[in-house]
């Protein structure tokens, strides 16, 4: 099946195009009704061998399952090599549905450790690496996984009062702890499969690398002003990052990928912040989250709390304009006020204050960078 690209690059860089409860808000939960998509799923078999593209594997904001959108996950494909950014619900199936090869996966980048961003992170290795190389498409392994270290502390409960604590002996594990616990949870299955089928040990397929911070920051000061810093570099991409404010979450990262064929910045979950604008400045494509709370009948205090961790779709265009990006793509999106997200209305909202192209992303959209 040929690629259905929802948005091909323009010749010019810029072209103008004519209730969640209080605890749910504290966890940045968006409702399951937040988005709907009826587009036919494309595959990426026809992606050129040379060039840079982004495949939106999942575009939903928030953890509650949505029948119409998969959880947040994006695949950057550069000259045939794939780099995953976040791995939410259904991401492993979407990766296969998109026609991407597990053997082509170069690295994984996690913006933060909210469940909707890592729901299938371990499954990339548990399932995507299940086959042996001689048996078919599988992970080359070990695959570098970059992301947050331990938060180091927890905030008080939203609204006050006591809150239970899960795993009190280690309540704020980072990426390494995440993989340690997941490996332990699947130990019986892995041990059986290694003995019965000769599969590789899952632990050896992921090279977990918690990102060292170049500035003083912590769970009480989550995103101090900073300049972008290099996370990794290989023969296809140079990846830089900054800390961004996402409510009480720490660390939370935005990532920028510079390639020979253009640059792409992923905001992660964030409010309007100069760190993200500095990172994204001059990018060819900005993949940015957005939320709509206008018209929502829920408590104003909860809406305000949500906006401490997200950008309103009506204001996201000013972020793109301030960063001087060529194109704006909305992903990790949710509408608190409407049962069904209206992409035309959302595009008009996102266009405010921005003179570039806007795409309201749907699952498996392919964005050609160059």
Question: What does it look like?
Answer:
The protein is of the alpha/beta class and 370 residues long. The chain has a single domain (22-157, 173-368), classed as Ribonuclease Z/Hydroxyacylglutathione hydrolase-like (Metallo-beta-lactamase, Chain A). It is built from ten helices and 14 strands. The strands form two sheets. A seven-stranded mixed β-sheet has the order 6-5-4-3-2-1-14. The chain has a seven-stranded mixed β-sheet with strand order 7-8-9-10-11-12-13. A hairpin with a 4-residue loop joins strand 7 and strand 8. Helix 7 (274-280) crosses helix 9. It is globular. Pfam families: Lactamase_B. One of its GO terms (molecular function) is 3'-tRNA processing endoribonuclease activity. Residues 163-174 have a biased composition (Low complexity).
Give the CATH superfamily.
Answer: Ribonuclease Z/Hydroxyacylglutathione hydrolase-like
What is the string of SSEs from the N terminus onward?
A: HEEEHEHHEHHEEEEEHEHHEHEE
Q: Tell me the domain tally.
A: 1
Low-confidence stretches: 1-41
Strand order of the largest sheet: 6-5-4-3-2-1-14
| Class derived from helix and strand content | alpha/beta
């Amino acid at each position: 099946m040929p690629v259905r690209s929802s948005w091909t690059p323009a010749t010019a860089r810029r072209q103008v195009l004519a209730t969640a409860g209080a605890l749910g808000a504290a966890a940045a939960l968006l409702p399951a009704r937040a988005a709907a998509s009826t587009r036919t799923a494309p595959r990426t078999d026809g992606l050129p061998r040379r060039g840079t593209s982004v495949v939106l594997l999942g575009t939903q904001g928030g953890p509650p399952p949505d029948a119409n959108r998969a959880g947040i996950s994006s695949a950057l494909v550069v000259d045939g090599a794939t780099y995953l950014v976040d791995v939410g619900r259904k991401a492993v199936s979407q990766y296969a549905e998109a026609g991407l090869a597990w053997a082509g996966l170069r690295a994984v980048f996690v913006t933060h450790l909210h469940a909707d961003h890592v729901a299938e992170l371990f499954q990339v290795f548990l399932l995507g690496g299940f086959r042996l190389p001689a048996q078919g498409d599988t992970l080359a392994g070990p695959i570098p996984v970059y992301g947050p270290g331990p938060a180091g502390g927890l905030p008080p409960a939203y609204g006050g009062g006591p809150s239970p604590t899960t795993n009190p002996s280690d309540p704020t594990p980072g990426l390494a702890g995440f993989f340690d616990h997941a490996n332990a949870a699947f130990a019986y299955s892995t041990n059986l499969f290694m003995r019965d089928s000769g599969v590789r040990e899952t632990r050896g397929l992921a090279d977990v690398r918690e990102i060292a911070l170049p500035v003083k920051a912590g769970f009480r000061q989550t995103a101090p002003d900073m300049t972008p810093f290099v996370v990794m570099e290989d023969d296809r991409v140079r990846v830089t990052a900054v800390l961004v404010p996402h409510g009480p979450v720490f660390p939370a990262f935005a990532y920028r990928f510079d390639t020979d064929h253009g640059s792409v910045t992923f905001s992660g979950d964030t409010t309007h912040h100069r760190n993200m604008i500095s990172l994204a400045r001059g990018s060819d494509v900005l993949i940015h989250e957005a939320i709509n709370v206008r018209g929502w009948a829920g408590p104003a205090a909860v809406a305000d709390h949500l906006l401490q961790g997200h950008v309103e779709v009506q204001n996201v265009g000013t972020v793109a304009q301030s960063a001087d990006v060529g194109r704006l793509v909305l992903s990790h999106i949710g509408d608190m006020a409407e049962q069904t997200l209206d992409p035309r209305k959302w595009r008009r909202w996102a266009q405010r204050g921005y003179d570039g192209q806007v795409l309201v992303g749907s699952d498996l959209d392919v964005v050609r960078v160059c």
